[in-house]
Design brief:
Layout: E1 4-9, H1 11-29, H2 34-37, H3 41-44, E2 46-52, E3 55-62, E4 68-73, H4 82-96, E5 101-107, H5 111-115, E6 120-121, E7 126-128, E8 131-139
Antiparallel strand pairs: 1-2, 2-3, 3-4, 5-8, 6-8, 7-8
Length: 140
């Protein structure tokens, strides 16, 4: 296996790869309605692509207000720390942009993953796209 690397993506040039990953994870696997998966925030976000060699296998985005989201890794590459690399890249970018606080809405089953990166649960459980979530916050 090649080394996994994360790079800042260009929304316009890399949209096909970002869409392919998010559609596979959120729409196909988790039944998120397509109209909820892609939104106007994509235009203003910093996007990240995790690649094995030249093949994109994961993505995430950082919004201008410090919200991290759409962290997704293709099924065959889960458990290989790809999500960790994506989240670390998004946090580093947020800190570089002087965003002292990062936030996200985590699927409840993934809260321990985000807690390992310094996020703390700050809300009660709620449904988003039919999936239980909690809001989480991390301060730099």
């Amino acid at each position: 296996m090649n080394k996994i690397r994360v790079r800042v993506a260009d929304w316009h040039k890399d949209i096909a790869d970002i869409r392919r990953i998010r559609e596979a994870v959120f729409i196909a696997e988790q039944s998120v309605p397509p109209e909820l998966e892609f939104d106007a925030d994509d235009n203003d976000a910093v996007h990240f692509l995790a690649c094995e060699g030249d093949y994109p296998i994961g993505t995430a985005r950082l919004l201008p207000d410090g919200q991290i989201g759409r962290v997704s890794v293709l099924k065959d590459w889960r458990g290989l720390k790809v999500g960790d690399a994506l989240l670390e890249a998004a946090i580093a970018q947020a800190e570089q942009q002087d965003l002292k606080q990062q936030s996200l809405s985590a699927q409840v089953h993934a809260t321990a993953f985000y807690e390992r990166h310094g996020f703390k649960v700050v809300s009660e459980e709620f449904l988003e796209a039919g999936i239980p979530h909690v809001d989480m916050v991390r301060s730099s």
